[in-house]
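Render Beta-lactamase-related domain-containing protein in 3D.
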Amino acid sequence: MRKTSVILLVAGIVAGLAGLGLMPRQPRLTTQTTGDADLAAAVRAAVDDPSGYRGLAVALIDGGQIRTAGLGDRDRAGNPVRPDTPFEIGSVPKVLTGMLLAHQAGVGAVRPDDTLGATWPAITGTAGEVTLAELASHRAGLPRIVLDSVTDWARTTWANYAAGNPYAGQDVDRVRAAANDQTPGDGRGEVSYSNLGMAVLGQAIAADAGTGYPELLDRELLTPLGMTATIQVTSAAALPAERAEGTIGSGRTPDPWIGTGYAPAGLGYWSTVEDLARLVAATAAGTAPGAEARDPRFDDTDRTRIGYGWLTTRYGDHEITWHNGATGGFSSYVGFDRATGRGVVVLGNTDMGVEPVGLRLLGVPREEAGTASPARPTWIGVGIGLLFTFIGGLTLIGTARRPVADRLTVLSGGVWALVYPALGHQLGGWSAVPGWIWPLGLVASGVGLALVVQRWRTLPLNGAARPWLRVAATAGSLAVAIALAAALLS
């Protein structure tokens, strides 16, 4: 018994030490600084906790002047963030789509009260009855995103937690088909955020103009504003050079979010703070094409109203017009105070929200600006992380101690005692759970594996009443474990 206890203790210590070396580690904003040093200092003062951020790029528009700064690292290699570093900007282009509607309405190409079906005749279902203005203000009663099947749902869920691209394969035809299958819900007329709605709005305006959405946006908004660094990426090969590298809470680098159909909702767009500062400055001044999209038209909450894409929220004495964005490993915020003309752009290369930083730079008091949090729902990530970290090792310990255990059973359990912690490492919400908890799960796996090694010679190969069923179950279990391991490594 003493020898067994020593072996198990040593196995647990070795596994725990290995776990400490491999445990999930939150990124942390480093001391590197480029650009305007005073602005960088103000940004650091606005950041509550540098944990959760890796790099930030910031622009501040004040008194007609644009100042920019980069803080921290753009990638794992430690290269610094610069004001011209490209970031994935998530939903920020929704304001561009709203402005495109306002601009096209201003030149008489469309009217805000035109229906979707009249603007894009390819939409033949009941969703064609909603108006362009309803789509631009998220009041069309359409869902956030459409998942057509169990396969779509499973793929999207896995992508969200395994750092994949949840919009893979969502081209213009898929978006059109999804819209044709929708019936506006009872919530039509009330604000309910819809990526699908903004996507079909942009595609409809482009179809009416006889061109593609990226081409129309470039021609009517980006080129007049001089936004040459704002691009729509349609393949991994087209990603911008010297770009920021995104990071999720587990520390993994996610795949870029690419899908042409949802481009008007922001999918696949990359930009810099320098470029977005031009947008914010011109919109705040009212000189940007379609700048009237900023004007609040409809109530969202008791302190927030929405225009075409742009939201306007009261924070005490401040009224901020804004939009944010979040992808698998990036966060973004653009906003301005029309009363003062002050504007801000904040881009981050983790999934930690940057909204409080932007609000504080606009003069919103700290307590009203709130605190930063990860973009993904942390309670799901917390549950996944804790369950997968411990279940494999604890289950193996129980299996190895059973009098009726056999080699096939403990072989399968041993593989899962390694695969489960790997899943917990990659899918867990380690921005909300201390990373040092993960090695404790590896301790359980190490103890379980040591018990298996000790008992291996005394165990029968297959002790089941129906041996063929045990063989089939073991083979299936190992196949699933191998497939999951391969997915994590891909």
